[in-house]
């Protein structure tokens, strides 16, 4: 008996030792895959920092706010921006063709030397979200103030940095005598923040109608960030290769109502609460695939040995990794379709039972699922509750396709970014964008749609996007312009 036990013990410890060796060898191998330092010559361009900072600040003074209701839009602010761009980027406006699409969106064409090749498209949006509490801002949100090393104002990060940054880079390329081989399009929508239906979508339809093919599309959606994985000291350039879908469902519970002194067993508020609790208790399944897995795999070689053993062996540690990621809201959103109750309303008087309770739950859909499959799962979860489920029309979209992050187009992105950032090269990695961008309208025209702005942004600054004190460090705006310069040059090559 003891002999048998000893033999089993020996066998299992042999297995465990074998497993440990496999894990360590994988971790070691992955460590060898860290990319060699940049071989490319660093980008040498001279930018007039003061002038380009002031040009961005000037654009932030124009309140190009978009609203769901198009009649509320102040089109004169957009026209003022158009005139401002024409005055400040003379070479662009002399050499590129400019068209106004959908009323207020802009499409520029820089014809390349070889028009038989698929073109490239750089995007940004002119519109910004409204400011709820201007008094809470350090500087007026539409003041366009440069102070303490920042350019302050609504739109500094989202997304006049792209519009102005791309134009700065093109203006500089023209000054340097650069001639693109591929045609370059610039598309600046005017209603991204309210869905992009009149701007980016119309531009995409126009280009499709003209038979334009696009090798690469670059829009907003990812920045250069720090601290994704503890112990990875290099910054990480997050290239959004896909974006999640969007669905809002309205839940309605009804009840007879009546006097609150004699309540029934089931009330409208109780039923609706139960529905919300049920949805929150049944999160959508977590998945470690696509861009999120790609991101972890890109980071693995740079991680300290402890985390590298995990990252290099996701075949074994996948469930652990999912658990760890799910602990933070951002990590959780990178793994699954998220469930967010955003509206909950019922009742008008303290002693009256409401006859109706209403909630809205917003879902951000993970690639692989669809608006229909999410709705179906919700109906299934709530089937035993007397709750009506209705889709809020006009806003739902399926997740975008996932752009290629292994091929030549992505490699060019990596090369250009590393060249622009040669002093402090980031790890370039794919990423799932949790929000929506105008780029999704172009996924039918290109299989390489990338969402990225070449500025290093801390999590504190990210929180100002759509919030209070939106601002960009001057230094990072300059890097964004440098990155656009390198991207425009590299991606428009033969
Ligand atoms: Zn935006």
CATH topology type of the largest domain: Aminopeptidase
CATH architecture of the largest domain: 3-Layer(aba) Sandwich
**Total number of domains:** 2
Outline type: globular
* Separate helix tally: 15
Task: Work out the radius of gyration.
Answer: 26 Å
Write a compact overview of the structure shown.
With 494 residues, the protein is an alpha+beta fold. The chain has 15 helices and 18 strands. Helix 1 (2-31) crosses helix 9 (305-311) and helix 5 (160-175) packs across helix 15 (474-491).
Characterize the structure shown.
The chain contains 15 helices and 18 strands. It is of the alpha+beta class and 494 residues long. Helix content is 37%, strand content 20%. α1 crosses α9, α5 (160-175) crosses α15 (474-491) and α13 crosses α15 (474-491). Strands 1-2-6-3-7-17 form a six-stranded mixed beta sheet. The chain folds into two domains: 49-229 and 402-491, Zn peptidases (Aminopeptidase), CATH 3.40.630; 242-391, Alpha-Beta Plaits. The model has no long low-confidence stretch (mean pLDDT 94). Zinc ion (ZN) binds at residues 125, 158-159, 192, 220. Zinc ion binds at residues 125, 158-159, 192, 220.
């Amino acid at each position: 008996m003891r002999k048998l036990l000893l033999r089993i013990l020996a066998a299992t410890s042999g297995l465990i030792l074998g497993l440990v060796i496999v894990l360590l060898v994988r971790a070691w191998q992955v460590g060898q895959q860290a990319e060699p330092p940049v071989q490319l010559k660093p980008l040498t361009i001279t930018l007039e920092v003061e002038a380009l900072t002031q040009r961005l600040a000037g654009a932030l003074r124009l309140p190009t706010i978009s609203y769901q209701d198009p009649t509320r839009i102040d089109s004169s602010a957009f026209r003022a921006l158009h005139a401002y761009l024409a005055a400040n980027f003379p070479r662009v406006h002399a050499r590129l063709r400019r068209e106004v699409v959908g009323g207020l969106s802009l499409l520029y064409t820089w014809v390349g030397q070889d028009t038989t090749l698929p073109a490239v498209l750089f995007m940004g949006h002119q519109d910004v979200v409204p400011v709820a509490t201007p008094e809470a801002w350090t500087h007026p949100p539409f003041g366009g103030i440069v102070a303490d090393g920042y350019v302050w104002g609504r739109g500094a990060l989202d997304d006049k940095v792209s519009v102005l940054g791309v134009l700065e880079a093109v203006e500089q390329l023209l000054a340097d005598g650069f001639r693109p081989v591929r045609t370059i399009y610039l598309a600046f929508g005017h209603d991204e923040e309210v869905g992009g239906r009149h701007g980016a979508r119309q531009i995409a339809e126009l280009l499709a109608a003209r038979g334009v093919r696009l090798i690469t599309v670059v829009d907003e959606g990812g920045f250069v960030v720090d601290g994704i994985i503890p112990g990875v000291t290099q910054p990480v350039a997050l290239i959004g290769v896909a974006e999640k879908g969007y669905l809002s469902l309205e839940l309605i519970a009804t009840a007879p109502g009546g006097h609150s002194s004699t309540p029934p067993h089931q009330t409208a508020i109780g039923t609706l609460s139960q529905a919300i609790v049920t949805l929150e208790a049944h999160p959508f399944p977590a998945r470690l695939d696509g861009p999120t897995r790609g991101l972890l795999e890109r980071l693995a070689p740079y991680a300290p040995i402890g985390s590298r053993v995990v990252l290099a062996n996701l075949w074994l540690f996948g469930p652990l990794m999912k658990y760890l990621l799910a602990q933070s809201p951002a990590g959780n959103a990178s793994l699954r379709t998220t469930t967010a109750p955003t509206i909950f309303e019922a009742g008008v008087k303290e002693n009256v039972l409401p006859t109706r309770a209403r909630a809205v739950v917003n879902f951000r859909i993970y690639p692989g699922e669809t608006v229909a499959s999410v709705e179906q799962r919700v109906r299934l979860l709530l089937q035993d509750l007397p709750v009506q489920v209705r889709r809020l029309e006009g806003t739902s979209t399926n997740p975008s396709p996932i752009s290629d992050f292994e091929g030549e187009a992505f490699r060019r992105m990596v090369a250009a970014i590393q060249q622009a950032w040669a002093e402090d090269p980031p790890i370039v990695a794919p990423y799932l964008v949790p929000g929506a961008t105008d780029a999704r309208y172009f996924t039918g025209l290109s299989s390489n749609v990338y969402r990225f702005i070449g500025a290093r942004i801390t999590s504190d600054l990210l929180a100002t996007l759509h919030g209070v004190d939106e601002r960009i460090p001057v230094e990072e705006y300059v890097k964004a312009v440098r990155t656009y310069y390198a991207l425009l040059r590299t991606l428009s090559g033969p």
